[in-house]
Amino acid sequence: MTTTTADRAYPGPPRSADHRLSMDELAAVVARDIPAGSFVNLGIGQPTKIADHLPAGSGVVLHTENGMLNMGPKAEGDAIDPDLTNAGKVPVTELPGAAYFHHADSFAMMRGGHLDVCVLGAYEVAFNGDLANWTTGRPDDIPAVGGAMDLAIGAKDVYVMMTLFTRSGEPKLVPRCAYPLTGLGCVSRVYTDHGVFDVGSEGIRIRETYGVDAGELAQRLGITPPHPA
Amino acid sequence: MTTTTADRAYPGPPRSADHRLSMDELAAVVARDIPAGSFVNLGIGQPTKIADHLPAGSGVVLHTENGMLNMGPKAEGDAIDPDLTNAGKVPVTELPGAAYFHHADSFAMMRGGHLDVCVLGAYEVAFNGDLANWTTGRPDDIPAVGGAMDLAIGAKDVYVMMTLFTRSGEPKLVPRCAYPLTGLGCVSRVYTDHGVFDVGSEGIRIRETYGVDAGELAQRLGITPPHPA
Amino acid sequence: MSRAEILDSADAAVAGIEDGATVLVGGFGLAGMPFDLIDALIRQGAKDLTIVSNNAGNGDVGLAALLAAGRVRKVLCSFPRQSDSWVFDDLYRAGKIELEVVPQGNLAERMRAAGAGIGAFYCPTAVGTPLAEGKEVREIDGRTYLLEYPIKGDYALIGAHVADTMGNLVYRRTARNFGPVMATAATTTIVQVDQVVEPGTIDPEAVVTPSIYVDRIVQVTARHYTVQGAR
Amino acid sequence: MSRAEILDSADAAVAGIEDGATVLVGGFGLAGMPFDLIDALIRQGAKDLTIVSNNAGNGDVGLAALLAAGRVRKVLCSFPRQSDSWVFDDLYRAGKIELEVVPQGNLAERMRAAGAGIGAFYCPTAVGTPLAEGKEVREIDGRTYLLEYPIKGDYALIGAHVADTMGNLVYRRTARNFGPVMATAATTTIVQVDQVVEPGTIDPEAVVTPSIYVDRIVQVTARHYTVQGAR
After folding, report:
1. What CA–CA distances, in Å, run from A1 to A41, A54, A189, A204?
2. What is the model's pTM?
3. In this complex, which of C118, C124, C173 lies closest to D122 when CB atoms are compared?
4. Which of A21, C16, D52, D185 meets the CB 3.0–4.6 Å disulfide criterion with D114?
């Protein structure tokens, strides 16, 4: 189901920044929005950066699907242990209060809805929350799904972090995904360099804009402007 | 499916003892038949006695469905720990090489066919291996199944240990169970005070007799005699 | 939320359990039975409860006391009838309590399914028995199975040995039993422990219930009941 | 049989693996990868294998070396494509190897089902995606699920940290990953460990894989590969 902002009450104008955000700035925005004390899985790639921006004492506990809760920062130098990596196979560290478990237990944790937030990258997200992030579907692309489909349906809130437009200027937030799907209606929020969006069964809504007017952003995405320009 | 000994080749006359066995003697017979190094679950009641007859160095590892492998003998005196009991809630001990696990893991172990032998008590066993051991089905009997149905379908070999006749002289090894079933065709061998029987899809066969002639035993059970009397 | 609430009393730990709630209660007989939480639940007064537990009470303590207080509408368990289950037996025979008998392994696996996001599963246990009545049957690869559905709790009351302040748990011996599974299957998991320690004290390799499953913790003084029931 | 066989060499440990066997291979990337057993399997010569593993080889070692030796007919894995999966990539693009992509959690849960005697289960993962094609769909309690079947192995080759001579295993950190699940799902489980100890040395509360799941053990000298693949 694809709907637009017109379909639901809009609480007010989005917050905004005066410039398009870098991926690092965006990671800070996502970190700000993760409630203190949440259990969070950060997907491979850009979302990994979010960990660097979580405030000290946030109590956020990081899950890595290869079998660990309370994962610490990336390991450096002597702290590197080949037996301790994150889901991207990057050496990481262990924080006090960590726990290890096997893969079936780790994905039971995820699939059972126990994670509060999961942040993933994406090729495309649809206004209804459909996610495409695992394969381009091109004949020469070897399909590899990893834990993406499990993460997509597992966490209570699935956020996507991505650039809003492709290099050639096409929106990646679309009425309907063209790429093969990872999950149906699973994304609730999309963080991009141009702004933040709520998506889902009630349609798309602009929450924040960065270096662009909400009306202009709505126009570029082909959605109803959030309020009279 | 109910068949008789006539339906399959009989390898020879049963071994025999000159007297009807006590339950303790019978426990020794079962212990003798458990292959060295087996993983074994002994049901509540009479089967528990089998542990006392396992030869030292047999390497038999006892499983208790409340979450333990390599359970030791009954605990006495100061060794009693309310946190360490068998499935009958009797305090037991732990042997070197023990492992604890939770109930889902314990029954996964059982249901997954990893136990070699399970020995259960029974109200009735049918010639085809059907087992009835959980409820009499009488209106005043509060049904309680515990792990009986899981054990019945779980182990590679399910043995039953029971008296062959009720107090009123009715056989408990029968063409078809009258009591509510615990499992279908799950029992492979029945150890009784009068003899030992193979049961299953190929029907019943007398293996051993105690204090009774095989022909007479066959007659009392209403089965084809194993060989010309 | 990550940091489990550490509460001062069992009464505070069971606050808010509503009438009509489904409560998973740990323990196998008395081992692992969360006595203090159950006693607090009796004082708290919630009624019309559905209790999921392996047994239906032993002696006059713990679950048996909750039953005796008339707070339980229905029990799902594998083994109600025991030598010391007189409280349940009387209520059942008087028609004052409902009983659903579930094979022990199915009880555990159905709660695991609830915690693991499995919608239903095909299980070989109880095929051809009276407990198969009404269940969907399917043959897979030459074996017959019954379709079993998850058992989810509003609350779990469990006993563990040591918790850290994040909520990681370890258990003692066979007192582990249903605790780890129930912790995954309830919306709110409440745990009584012998000891609360700082994070980093429990070996991360030995954690049995990771912190994500634990909501409230109360440290209690270990009480010892004789194994067959009476205080 | 209880007492696992303790073997002198990885070659002895992999003896008897037949052509055409389904082999579950532990590890997530290189962590937990049973390098010595895989190298022994290459020497042993079994071919036409179906390999179930999270990845399809990294760099030129371990699983990648087995693939390069031409012994593998089919791979079931969640994530073949990696920066260092050149061996698999070339074979796949040349049409010399079959691939079945399975979501990572389904890979684990389907092996768990095999080990736990579950005939099949309804899983919400992959609903509405290309990986749902051909799968039975069912709505349960308002949510849509796909029916998933067990994945059983003839053999599992896994790495663990310490074994006792009975076969109890503990792992190290995230090298645990698929090992415990694969150990339950294979007819014959073969383990390489850093150390073999006497029974009673491993804390029974901390055992991750109980002895019942382990058939053969070989102690090997820990080898350290850099995390991104090459020796």
Report:
1. 27, 34, 16, 11
2. 0.95
3. C118
4. D185
D198: contact with B, CB 8 A cutoff = yes
Chains A–C, number of C-beta pairs less than 8 Å apart:
74
- Nearest alpha carbon to residue B131 among B46, B199, B218, B51: B199
pLDDT above 70 for C122:
yes
Structure confidence at residue A202 (pLDDT): 93
Contacts of D1 (CB under 8 A, 6+ apart): B35, B37, B38, B39, B59, B116, D215
Q: What is the pLDDT of residue A6?
A: 35
Strands C186-197 and A39-42: unpaired
Tokens 């506990």 correspond to what residue?
A: A61
Catalytic residue flag (residue A124) = no
**Amino acid at the residue B193:** D
10 Å Cβ neighbour count for C96? 12
Q: Are C146 and C120 in contact (CB under 8 A)?
A: no
D142-146 CB contacts, 8 Å cutoff, 24+ apart: D143/C119, D145/C119, D145/C120, D146/D122
Closest C-alpha to D176, from A47, A142, A100: A100
Token pair of A138, please? 């091109």
Report the interhelical angle of C104-116 vs B103-111 (nearest 10°): 110
Phi then psi for B23, rounded to 5 degrees? -60, -30
Q: What is the mean pLDDT of residues C201-209?
A: 98
| First CA to last CA distance, chain B | 27
Distance from CA of D194 to the nearest CA of A (A): 13
Option in C2, C204, C210 nearest A38 (CB): C2
Point out the residue among D168, D198, D212 whose CB comes nearest to the CB of B109: D212
On whether any CB of chain A is under 8 Å from the CB of D109, the answer is yes
Residue C106 in this model has a pLDDT that exceeds 60:
yes
| Contact between chains at D116 and B97 (C-beta distance less than 8 A) | no
Taken in order D172, D173, D174, D176, is the CA torsion positive or negative? positive
Contact A97 C210 (CB under 8 A): no
Distance CA D67, CA D90 (A): 10
Q: How far is B214 from chain C (nearest CA, A)?
A: 32
Is the Cβ pair B96, D211 closer than 8 Å?
A: no
Kindly report the backbone phi and psi dihedral angles of residue B134, in degrees, each rounded to the nearest multiple of 5, phi listed first: -115, -30
Reading the block at residue C178, the tokens are 């249903």
Using CA coordinates, name the residue in chain B closest to D169.
B99
For residue D115, list chain B residues with Cβ-Cβ distance below 8 A.
Answer: 108, 112, 114
